[in-house]
């Protein structure tokens, strides 16, 4: 008999969580103006809002934390991280920042100008926000299969080369500062990009003289799917796959709070000294001196270890299988999800789950609130609220996918917790016909509104 799957770690420390009553949750979510971001952490039983900075660090990371060098300039922790980035990604130049959106802010301050267009595969919220804040335009070139949740295409994060070349040929070269490839593609459901697609995107971009930038928050999960789904890489190590992936990039941004398995931090890295010097000006202005940026020495030490651990195949197998465990339980009950299951989260197809709720009443947000009321589980809407308003018309943008994302923190919850989430969704699914109205906006910010929006029930 084959031995069953078990986690590749044992638990050394625990944190208590509180299981509230439905009456309490009804009061709390109303006080939060039906915005799950406004809830206090102690009001949440199982928190799947994000996998960003919410994972559990290892004993080796905690040990590295204690030996951090907090020198303002030239700390040993900076050089530990520099060596890790060089060894894993192959980039000689890098700048630390306090998190991923800060790296975007610094890099885009160099590259993105008013009137520019930035193609990519379903840019995530902060990426699109930084582009549109600079009065530029993000153009989605994701393959069409990504928007069919039932399709089993193995690489739904891929960029459609025909769409990309259409952008390249429709605009002047000076208007296109870069193409952004998000690994894995969060907005399309944590879906991977194939090595062949990375190779093809780079070849096409070089033909038109366009820089290739990777949004690398979940690079290791992407490498795992390449190993599992591309025949040429089945016998390759994760570290070798990562090295080849990043050989196709001119630069990268990284939210280290995901596949760095740390609670804070980020960086950008690049091939050329010229781009490094240009970005350094903004990094010093916005983040800090180049050898610490927005990070403490102890956090750079922990990240150095985390980048090594995340490329360990035993860790990745555990990580991917837990996400698949939750997804497969939902599929067994007929609950509509993005297939195949992605790397960091399960994405519920809210349009098909709550088919009676009008799109103007924020379907995925409605489902997210129902899940919180049912079991104290906090997910996040990846739909119309996140898509924001068109900068020119000020009208809502209705994306092709209206999703509830259940992002699973790394090394944090057990499969018993996943069972609670699955049963809660099954209970809602069984009474879905009774959910016919959603929410309307009371107030919203002019950009990235989903973080602070205030809603009321229709």
Fold and architecture overview:
The chain has 458 residues and is α/β, with parallel strands linked by helices. The chain has helices at residues 22-31, 59-66, 76-89, 100-111, 125-133, 161-170, 195-208, 219-229, 238-246, 273-286, 297-310, 313-332, 350-353, 363-375, 384-387, 415-430; strands at residues 46-47, 93-97, 117-120, 137-140, 178-182, 211-215, 251-255, 266-270, 345-349, 377-378, 380-382, 403-407, 439-443, 454-457. It has a 5-stranded mixed beta sheet, with helices on both faces. A 3-stranded antiparallel beta sheet has the order 9-12-11. It has a two-stranded parallel ribbon with strand order 1-10. Helix 7 links the parallel strand 5 (178-182) and strand 6 (211-215). The mean pLDDT is 95. Keywords: Lyase, Pyridoxal phosphate. It holds the Pfam family Beta_elim_lyase. This is Tryptophanase. The modification N6-(pyridoxal phosphate)lysine is found at residue 258.
Amount of helix: 25-40%
Alpha carbon gap, first and last residue: 55 Å
What is the highest CATH level, the class of the largest domain? Alpha Beta
Task: Provide the number of structural domains.
Answer: 2
Structural class: alpha/beta
Q: Describe the largest sheet.
A: 5 strands, mixed
SSE order, one letter for each helix or strand: HEHHEHEHEHEHEHHEEHHHEHHEEHEHEE
Spatial strand sequence of the major β-sheet: 2-8-7-6-5
Radius of gyration from CA coordinates: 21 Å
Number of helices: 16
Low-pLDDT ranges? none
Question: In CATH terms, what is the architecture of the largest domain?
Answer: 3-Layer(aba) Sandwich
CATH homologous superfamily heading of the largest domain: Type I PLP-dependent aspartate aminotransferase-like (Major domain)
Shape: globular
**Could you report the average pLDDT, rounded to the nearest whole number?**
95
User: The CATH topology of the largest domain is what?
Assistant: Aspartate Aminotransferase, domain 2
């Amino acid at each position: 008999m084959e031995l069953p799957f078990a986690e590749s770690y044992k638990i050394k420390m625990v944190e208590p969580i509180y299981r509230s009553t439905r009456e309490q949750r009804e009061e709390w979510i109303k006080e939060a103006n039906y915005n799950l971001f406004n809830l206090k952490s102690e009001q949440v039983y199982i928190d799947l809002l994000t996998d960003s900075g919410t994972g559990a660090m290892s004993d080796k990371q905690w040990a590295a934390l204690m030996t951090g060098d907090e020198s303002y300039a030239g700390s040993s922790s900076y050089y530990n991280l520099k060596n890790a980035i060089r060894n894993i990604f192959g980039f000689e130049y890098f700048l630390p920042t306090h998190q991923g959106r800060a790296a975007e802010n610094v890099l885009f301050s160099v590259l993105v100008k008013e009137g520019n267009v930035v193609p990519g595969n379903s840019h995530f919220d902060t990426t699109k926000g930084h582009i549109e804040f600079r009065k530029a335009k993000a153009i989605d070139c994701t393959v069409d299969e990504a928007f069919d949740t039932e399709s089993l295409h193995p690489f739904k994060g891929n960029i459609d080369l025909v769409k990309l070349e259409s952008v390249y040929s429709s605009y002047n070269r000076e208007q296109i500062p870069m193409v952004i490839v998000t690994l894995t593609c969060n907005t399309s459901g944590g879906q991977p990009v194939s090595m062949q697609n990375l190779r093809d995107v780079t070849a096409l971009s070089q033909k038109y003289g366009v820089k290739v930038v990777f949004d690398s928050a979940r690079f290791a999960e992407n490498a795992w799917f390449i190993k599992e789904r591309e025949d040429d890489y089945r016998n390759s190590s994760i570290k070798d796959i990562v090295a080849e992936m990043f050989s196709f990039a001119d630069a990268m941004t990284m939210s280290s709070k995901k596949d760095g398995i740390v609670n804070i931090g980020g960086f950008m890295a690049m091939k050329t000294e010229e781009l490094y010097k240009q970005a350094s000006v903004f990094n010093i202005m916005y983040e800090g001196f180049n050898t610490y940026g927005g990070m403490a020495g102890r956090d750079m030490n922990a990240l150095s270890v985390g980048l090594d651990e995340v490329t360990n195949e035993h860790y990745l197998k555990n990580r991917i299988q837990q996400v698949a465990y939750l997804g497969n339980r939902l599929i067994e009950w007929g609950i509509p999800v993005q297939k195949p299951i992605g790397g960091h989260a399960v994405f519920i197809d809210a349009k098909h789950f709550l088919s009676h709720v009008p799109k103007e009443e924020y379907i995925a947000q409605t489902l997210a609130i129902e899940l919180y009321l049912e079991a104290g589980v906090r997910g996040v809407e990846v739909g119309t609220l996140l898509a924001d308003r068109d900068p020119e018309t000020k009208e809502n943008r209705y994306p092709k996918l209206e999703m509830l994302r259940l992002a699973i923190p790394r090394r944090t919850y057990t499969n018993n917790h996943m069972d609670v989430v699955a049963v809660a969704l099954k209970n809602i699914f069984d009474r879905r016909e009774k959910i016919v109205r959603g929410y309307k906006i009371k107030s919203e910010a002019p950009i990235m509104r989903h973080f602070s929006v205030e809603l009321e029930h229709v």
